[in-house]
Amino acid sequence: MCGIVGAVSARNIVPILVEGLKRLEYRGYDSCGVAVHQGGELRRTRSTSRVAELDAQVRNEEVSSGTGIAHTRWATHGAPEVHNAHPHFSTGPNGSARIALVHNGIIENHDELRAELQAKGFHFESQTDTEVIAHLINHLYDGDLFDAVQRATVRLKGAYAIAVFCRDEPQRVVGAREGSPLVLGVGQGETFLASDAMALAGVTDQIAYLEEGDIVDLQMGKHWVVARQPGGGYKPVQREVRTVHAHSGAAELGPYRHYMQKEIFEQPRAIADTLEAVGGITPELFGDRAFHAFKQIDQVLILACGTSSYAGMTAKYWMESIAGIPCNVEVASEYRYRDSVPNPRTLVVTISQSGETADTMAALKHARSLGMEQTLTVCNVSTSAMVRECKMAFITRAGVEIGVASTKAFTTQLVALFLLTLSLAQGRGRLTEAQEAQHLKALRHLPAAVQAVLALEPQVIAWAEEFARKENALFLGRGLHYPIALEGALKLKEISYIHAEAYPAGELKHGPLALVTSAMPVVTVAPNDTLLEKLKSNLQEVRARGGELFVFADSDTHIDSGPGIRVIRMPEHYGPLSPILHVVPLQLLAYHTACARGTDVDKPRNLAKSVTVE
Asked: Is 2 one of the annotated active-site residues of the chain?
């Protein structure tokens, strides 16, 4: 969500800024823009179209400079219109633009600051909270931009990553962060800022990760960092510059129509890569501290949002049944705002594809403030803030996931959480050598099993043609597969815009059954487990009301197609790992339904890939 790129160089950096934005497009945005220092003045180009259109605009307008900033915006304050797009300007005493600024995050006290600045004569052209920061820095500016940013940021409440430059100080960009990621890139005689190291791929691999409260001063071939102190003020600090090989988001689609389809079909490889270094079940899979930490805990708290929270819900079933350890799953955006009962012997597990999810990061810090210090993250980005914040980590090897709707990240998260379950079970004396061997064999066969499920795509496409004409759908699952039903409903609503809800199948008679008609398709996940007979009764409840059933059933469930019921048979039953197989056809159903409806599959409306605002 939102992307920042900035640079100070002797060469023309506009192509670098635009290319950086292209690499960040997967995060989601609804406007974009570039501002530079050119001919002694500030120039700006903004668009509510794609970055490709912005690129054409800057070329047509011959925008060129060695100093500049660029941004992709996901609208929070103010509609996605050009006057709300970043960069924002603030004018100086002579009436020309003096300050240019881009911002990720949300400023909570923007109304108060806006009123104060309007009283001082500043004119606002947008409805954004960001323009407040530009005017505040301009108001405090007295010839030193670095100093003005330091004085301005102490007035800000909320989350932000900013990049700003001034007409009166060529070849200088200042950045600051609080609650939103920002990295420094160091090149040969040039310096860069970005919200994600991926934006700088191919430009520099020398990256420093700024920490909370940092302000960085970028000049030609040099930089300074200061850190905010608890008692007030700032002091100089050093942030380690390390070699980071960031992957470009501009992956080739190959034979696929969309990145989401490509990523669905990459799941066998992603799972295999995630399991590649797993020779056996051991706490050290989660870091050097894990052996000692796992012995100190007696419960697990999982914090996550969206798709990742459904991975956590699935893991709860595993942990309590296999490891015998109590597990609570909290929606991260809710957890920090309610009174809870902390237990210092809790293992706090965060799950995040990007490792930058603002709600999850805030929930993690809240848990730590309550005295729960044993922290572990399951994440797809080894250099992310979440990995740096947690004491232990498991890095999934899903590769870059560009489609906003998560697919391969979800299944690799499930693999990581199953490994965590086995490790905890082993430490608690609940995993024999024979059971470990059996689980490892199943894990190693998992890529082939997923590949067999992907072969069902033609059957799923036939269903999708019918779903495309619907506006509502119900998803049902029981036990371990209820979170998978939730994930299936989320995928359908995310990219096809069909209203979809998921329920535990046993809850059907407690309300949702009132919605069942022939116009309401009911998708059911039907593995051959201990709840199968109960599930069959729930299916009969739907049929008795004239509902249309679409069932993904294991081959030995004896659920057959007939009037009002359609069945796609899964290749094999997979025991506790069955959720990983059953989610794949639900991904395909959502994808092909969206294609049939003609939606923008990879960039669904109103959504962003990396949600870095609260």
From this structure: yes
